[in-house]
Amino acid sequence: MVNMESWDWDTQEKTVSDTNGWKDKFEWVEEFQASPDGEKVAAIVKTGEAEFSVCVNGEAWENTFDKCWYLRYGPDGRLSCIVSSEMEWTVAVDGQAWDQSFGYVMEVKFSEDGKNVCAFIQQDGMYGAAINGEPWENLYSNMTNFAISSDGQHTAGSVQTEPMDEGDIFKFQSGIFTAAVDGKAWDKTFVNVWNKAFSPDGKRLAAEARMTLYDYTIVVDGVPWSEIYSCVWEPIFNPKTGAVVAPVKVGASWTLAQDGKTMWNRSFVQCWQQIFSPDASRVAAVVAPKYGKWTVAIDGEAWHSIFDDMVSDMVFSPDGRRLAAVGKNDYDYSVIVDDTVWNGTYDMLWQPVFSPDSQNVAIRAEKQGRQTIVMNGKPWKQECEQVWDPVFSPDGSKVLIRSIEGGRYIRRVLPTTELTG
Amino acid sequence: MHGLYNFVRGPLAWVAFILFVGGTLYRLIAMLVIARKKDNVVFDYFSLFYGLRSIFHWIIPFANRNSRQRPIFTIVTFAFHICLLAAPILLLAHVLLWDESFGISWWTLPEGVADIMTLIVIGGCIYFLWRRLTQPEVKFVTFASDFVILAIVAAPFITGFLAYHQWLGYKFWLILHILAGEVMLVAIPFTRLAHMIYSPFTRAYMGSEFGSVRHARDW
Amino acid sequence: MAEGQVIDGIYFNEVWEDAGLDEGTKKLTPEKIEKVINKVLEGETGARLKVYVDTCVHCGLCSDACHYYLSHDKDPTYAPVAKVKQTMWEMIKKKGRVSPTFMKRASQIASTQCNVCMRCAMYCPFGIDIAYIMSVVRRICHFLGITPLYIQDTAHSHAVTMNQMWVKNDEWPDTLQWQEEDAQEEIPTLRIPLEKEGADIMYSVIGPEPKFLAQLLYQAAVIFETAGLNWTMPATPGWDNSDMAMYTCDNEIMGRVKRVHFETARRLRVKKIVMGECGHAFRSIYDRGNRWLAWKMHPVYVEHAIEFYYNLLKSGKIKIAKKYEESVTLHDPCNVMRGRGLYEMARYVVNEMCADFREMEPNREHNYCCCAGGGVINCGPPFKMTRMLGNRVKAEQIAATGAKVCISPCHNCHSGLEDIVSHYKLGVHVKFISDILYEVMEKPGAV
Ligand code: SF4
Ligand code: SF4
C-alpha cells in the first residue's frame, strides 16, 4: 500500500498552482489531474505545432510528443500518459517514455501500490499486455477485457487462439477464444471469454465464459465449473479463502454462486457488481429485488431503500461493518449508507470514501455545475469548479481536499470535524 | 316440446350463464396470474391514462387511421358490434324474461328497431363470411374454426329473427334460438370470441407502451 | 429469385441460399425442435403471447400496415397475421412438433420478412404486437442455431468486441484521434475528448461509424465543438450503442452489450448519453436491452441525435448560416418515431436547416418502414432482394415527393434507402441530418 503517513497533513491550505496562467503559456490545456497526495496538478498541453506534453504545476515535461492521451496519476503519485512519437505509441511515466514502443496503447492500469504500470498494447496487428514497458512474448490476433493482478505483476486478456475467416460463424462457434495470462493461453478454448479476476496473490485467474452460444459458466485457471447457467456476470475471488464468487442466472432470476454452488438462498431480477468486505466475512451485491427497483443486498438480504434507475459504486468500510453506495432516481443521485439514504440529491456523485475508522463517509458531489465534498450527508460550505475524491488521513482525523476554485488548484487539509460539523 | 323448452330456458340457461360468467372470470384471472408471474412488465408499463386514450381512439369509428382507410369495413363492423351487444340486451322479450325471473327490467328497444338491428348483425355475418371467402389476406388466415365461430354468432340472431316472425313454427325456432344463444354465451370465454374479454387489455397495454414509454400515438 | 416453391410440404414465398439457415437446418432434429420450442414458450413467454394468440380474430386488418404485403401486390403470405400463422400458430398448435423445413421457413419469415417495425400493432384493432411474436420466433431460431449467417456473425462480433463490426480495441481510439486531427484542419481548437471523467455528455455511436463512416464522427465533433459542450467518448468497449444480438434475440449478449454501454457512461460520470443518428441502437438502449437487464427505463438519460440537434437549434447553441436549398423529404425511422415520438422535433430540425421540405405520405408514426431495420439488412447480401422487392411502396413514397434529397436520421434506414433508391433508380441522395447540419451551420471556430 501507499505510505500516506509521510504526506503533509499539517499545511492547512495552499494554492499549488494557478492554472489560469497555463492558458497563456499553452494554446491547449486539457482537463486537470490531481496527484493522490494533492501536491501536484497536471494536464496535457499543446507545446507547439502538433507537439504535446504534460504540464505539472505549471511546468511542462521536457519531453514532447506527437500525441498524448489518458493522463492519470498512479496510486504512488507517479504520473503516466499514453504518448506517441513517430507513429509509435508507448507510456510515459513522469515524463520518461518506456524504452519499448508499440503499434498502439489503448489502456493503462496500475498496481495497488502504483509500482507497476500495465498497458494493453497492439504491435504489428497483434495484441497483448506490457508491464512497465515489457511486453508479453506471445501476442494474439485479437484481445479484449484486459485485466491485471492487484500487485500488477500479472496481466491477462481474452484472446483469440486460431484465425477465423470473416463471417465464418461455424469456426467461431467451435470455440477459438480463451484467456491468456502473462502471454500464455489456457489450453481449453471457449466461444467467448469476458471479464476476468485475479486471485489476491495473482496466481489464479477466473473468467466469465460461454461454452456454446447458450451455455455460460465461470472458468478458473482454464477449468470450467461443472454447473452451466443461462448467463453469468464477472467473478471475484474471496480474499481469504480463494473461493470464486459470481452472479449466475438460474431460470429467470439471478443469484450468487460460489465455486459452482448457489451461495445465496435468495434470488433477484438482477444481481451484479458483488464485492467482499475486507475481512471476507460478508459479500454484497447490487440487486434488483423487483423489476426496475434497485438496492444493495448483503449476504442475500436486500436493503429496503429502493432506487428506480440504478445503484452503483458500492464500498465496504475498512472494518467491514458498514457499506456505502450511490443510487439514482430520474436525474438525481443520492448516497446510501447502511440502508439509510442521505438527505439531498446531486446531479453527479463519485464513489463514497470511508474514513479509516469506518465512522465517516465522504464523497465528491456535483450540483448545478459546482462541485464539493459531502460528508455524512452534509455538504462542505465551499463550492468549487472541481474537486477530487476526498482522502482521509491514516488516523482519520483529517481530510485532504483537492479542488479548483477560480482557476486556482488548492490543496487543503481540514479537520474531519469541520466537515462533519 | 314444452318439456324441452323448459329445460333450455331453465337449467340449461343457468348452466350457460354460469359457464359464461365463470369462464370469463377464469380467463381474466388466469391472464392476470400468468402476467404477474411471467410478464410482469405488462403491469410495470401500464398507464390508465394512455390505456384509455388508446381505447377511445379505437372504439370511436374513424378515430384511427386504419378505420378511415377502410370506410365500408368500419361502418359494417361498428354497426355489427353495436347491434350484436345492444339488440339482445335491450330486446323487450329478453327483458321480460329477466323481469319474470328476477324482477329486474330496463329500457327496451322498439320492436321494429330491434328487428332491423338483428338484420344488421346477420348482414354483418354475411359480410364477414364474404371476406373470409374472397379476400386473399383474410382467406389465407381463415380456419374451419373461424366459420364455426361465425355460425355461432349468426345462429341466435337468425333463429331469433325467424322466431319473432313466426315462420314455420314459433316454438321450434324459439327453442333453437335459446340454445343458440346459450352456445354463444358459453363460446365467448372459450373461443376466439374471447377477444371481447381481452381486447380492452391488449389495447390498453399497447396504448400504455406507446403513450408513456414511446411518447407516440397508436392509432 | 425462384418464384414461390413448396419444399417438404412447406410453402416458401421466396427462396434464397444462406449458409447459416441451410447448414443450421441440416443439423436440426424433430426432438430438438420440440424441446427448444417448448422451452422458450414455457420458460420465456407468458400472458402476452397467449393473449395475443387467443385474441387474434384472423381478420387481416393488419395487412395494409405491412410494406412487404403492399409491395408484393397484397400477396397474403406477407401479411403480418400470415407471418404468425406460418410460424407461431403452427408451433403452438403442434406443441412444437414441426419439421426442420418448417423452422427454416419460420426463421426466414421472422428474420428477413419482418422488420419488427411495429407498424402493424397500430393497425390491429386490438394492438396485437406481431413484432413481439416474431421476436419470440427469432429467439427460438437462435436456440436452434438457424439464424441467417451475416447477422449471426454480427452477433458474434458484439459478443467478442462489444461492437458491431469486429472493431478491435485499438482501432476505435485510433480512429477518433485521426478524425480529431483531420477536423483540426478546419477548426484548430477542436478536440475529441477521450475518457474525460466528469464530462456532461458521453457521445456514443454504432460500429460502422469508425469502420466506414468516419466523416460522421468528424461532423459530430464539429457540432459538439461549435456548441461548446463538455463531452467525451470512451476509449474502451462500451462506445458502441448498436445491437444486432437484440435482433437475433440472443438476449444474453444484448444484455451484456447494453450493460457495458451504461456502465461505461457511469464510469465516466456523465449526466447523459447522446447517441448518433441510429434507430435500432436507440431501441436497444431505450426499450429492449435495458428491460432485459431489469432497468425499467434507461438508467442514464439517452438523448437521440434528433432531440440533441433540436435542443441545439432551439437554444441557439448551433445557428444556421444559410439554409439548404435542395428539396428534401424526411424518412421517419420506426424506432425513434413509433419508438420515441420524435417526429415533431425532427420536423423542426429539418425546417430550420432546409428551405424546401416536402412530407412523404404517410408520415410520422405512420411512415412505412425502410425494410432494412429489425436486422433485415444485417442478414446481408443473400437477402438483399427480399428488401428491394419488399419495399416498392417506400420507393413510390419517396418518388412522389419529388425531393432530390431524402433525410434519414437512422443508420439502418440510411443504408436500406440507398439500396432502394438505386434499385428503383430514383436519383435521390440519402443523407443524415448531420450531413446537412454540418454543411449549413455557422462555424465560428473554422479557419
Ligand atoms: S414488417 Fe412491420 S408491419 Fe410488417 S409484419 Fe413486421 S412489424 Fe408488422
Ligand atoms: S393481428 Fe389483429 S388485425 Fe391482424 S388478423 Fe389478428 S386481430 Fe386482425
Description:
The complex is a heterotrimer of chains A (421), B (219) and C (447). With 421 residues, chain A is mainly beta. Chain A is 3% helix and 50% strand. By secondary structure, chain B is mainly α. Chain B is built from twelve helices and no strands. Chain B has helices at 2-9, 11-38, 41-44, 48-59, 65-69, 71-90, 92-102, 111-134, 136-139, 144-165, 170-190, 195-213. In chain B, α6 crosses α8 (111-134). In chain C, α14 links the parallel β5 (272-275) and β6. Chain C contains 21 helices and ten strands. Chain C has a four-stranded parallel β-sheet with strand order 4-3-5-6. Chains in contact: A-B, A-C, B-C. At the A-C interface, β6, β10, β14 and α2 of A face α1, α8, α9 and α13 of C. The structure holds iron/sulfur cluster (2 copies). Residues 56-62, 80-81, 124, 126, 128 of chain C line the site of one iron/sulfur cluster. Residues 65-66, 68, 80, 83, 114-120, 130-131, 369 of chain C line the site of one iron/sulfur cluster.
Write a compact overview of the structure shown.
The complex is a heterotrimer of chains A (421), B (219) and C (447). With 219 residues, chain B is mainly alpha-helical.
What fraction of residues of chain B sit in β-strands? under 5%
Helix content of chain A: under 10%
User: Are there runs of chain B of 5+ residues with pLDDT below 50, and where?
Assistant: none
β content of chain A, as a range? over 45%
Gyration radius of chain B, in Å: 20 Å
Q: Termini separation of chain B (Å)?
A: 52 Å
Helix content of chain B: over 70%
Averaging pLDDT over every residue of chain A, what do you get?
A: 97
The radius of gyration of chain A is 23 Å
N- and C-termini, Cα separation of chain A: 30 Å
List the ligand species: iron/sulfur cluster
Q: Report the strand count of chain A.
A: 43
- Biggest interface between chains: A-C, 55 and 52 residues
Q: How many structural domains are formed by the residues of chain B?
A: 1
- Assembly state: heterotrimer
The helix/strand class of chain B is: mainly alpha
Q: Sketch the major β-sheet of chain A.
A: 5 strands, antiparallel
Overall morphology of chain B: globular
| Total E-strand runs of chain B | 0
What would the average pLDDT of chain B be, to the nearest integer? 94
